[in-house]
């Protein structure tokens, strides 16, 4: 298997609400919500929104939807400055996110905070002066 992730699909309760939320964050979409799935273009990985019940059934007809507490997964948006972390968190809150953890200096040498989207998916917004980015905005990992 090639070591890459192509699409991250979030199962959502209300496709239109989630579409509006991510659009307000500035994510450009390539599909309309009327088509039943929405794809957002991001630097290197596609973010998709799909109805939660339908996504569970796609995995298996017997798959139960469990959405309680911390699910063990976070998504991350890495920035080029501390100010950008603060700006992105403020933008997310203004778009309807819940601020879970205000931005602060963290143990690994960076600066980060967390918000949750309308379906409770957790996003870390983080900066570290030792990170580098490709031209498309993707993080350089060496």
TrEMBL record:
Matching PROSITE patterns: VOC
Coiled coil: none
Top-level lineage group: Bacteria
Domain VOC: 4-128
Pfam families: Glyoxalase
Name of the protein: VOC family protein
Native organism: Vibrio europaeus
């Amino acid at each position: 298997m090639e070591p890459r992730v192509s699409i991250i699909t979030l199962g959502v309760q209300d496709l239109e609400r989630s579409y509006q939320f991510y659009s307000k964050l500035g994510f450009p979409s390539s599909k309309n919500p009327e088509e039943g799935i929405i794809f957002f273009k991001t630097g290197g990985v596609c973010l998709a929104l799909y109805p939660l019940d339908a996504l569970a059934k796609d995995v298996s007809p017997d798959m139960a939807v469990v959405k309680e507490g911390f699910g063990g997964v976070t998504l991350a948006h890495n920035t080029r400055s501390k100010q950008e972390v603060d700006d992105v968190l403020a933008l997310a809150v203004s778009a309807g996110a819940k601020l879970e953890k205000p931005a602060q200096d963290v143990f690994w040498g960076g600066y980060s905070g967390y918000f949750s989207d309308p379906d409770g998916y957790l996003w870390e917004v983080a900066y570290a002066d030792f990170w580098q980015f490709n031209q498309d905005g993707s993080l350089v990992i060496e």
